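Researcher: Here's the sequence for the chain we discussed earlier.
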Amino acid sequence: MTHFGRALEALNIEIICANSPQAKGRVERANATLQDRLVKAMRLEGISTIAEANAFLPGYMSRHNQRFAKAAFDPRDLHRPLAAHDDLRAQMVWREWRSVTSALTLHYNKAMFILEPTPISRPLAGKRVEVCEFPDGTLEIRHGEHALPYRMFDKIRQVNQAAIVENKHLDTALMMAKLMQEQLPARKRNNNEPRRRDQPVHLFPAPDVHAEAPMKRKRGRPPLRRLTPIEAAQRMLEVSEGAHR
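Model: Thanks. This is the structure I predict for it:
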């Protein structure tokens, strides 16, 4: 069930779907007004903020209803008044369920929420609670009729080293790697491993750098020698004289 349907069910309001072409036509006309006419009217007025749009709507609604409204067949107001137990703020809210860990933490919207260890929240480890996000931005974590106190740990604002590397901040990453390498202990060699500098006579003597190495014969045709400018001119003169003959 959607959040809208859940709120209407809690308020004991029946949803009447537009199952006829006439009802669907009314819905489409209202959508055309909100998506086309209203947007163009606000653009002509130079409205670019939510506060300006909220101040513009009452006058626009009055002009729109005066132009397009039609009188109902029954003018009586049949809306049911709110009962004493109806709480609109508690129902018009975005609700999602989350599981509580053994450390009394839960995750919602890329943030971790830590429940305060109260007599109500301690037994909730491994159980599910309801996260309620209100239109004004406030957030509540509820279990039944109880609102649980909590504190938030924003994981986005805590920038770790992996995020720095992913954001191409390589200078910071290399500096961090250098500091980590400097803190590591020096690498120890195996005592059983022989060292050549400790041997008086090497099994494989060092090669003599002054000895001439035998020349290796290269395979394939030797590369052509590049002609000097004078030789190239003489070659071109010989070719031209042979052509005239």
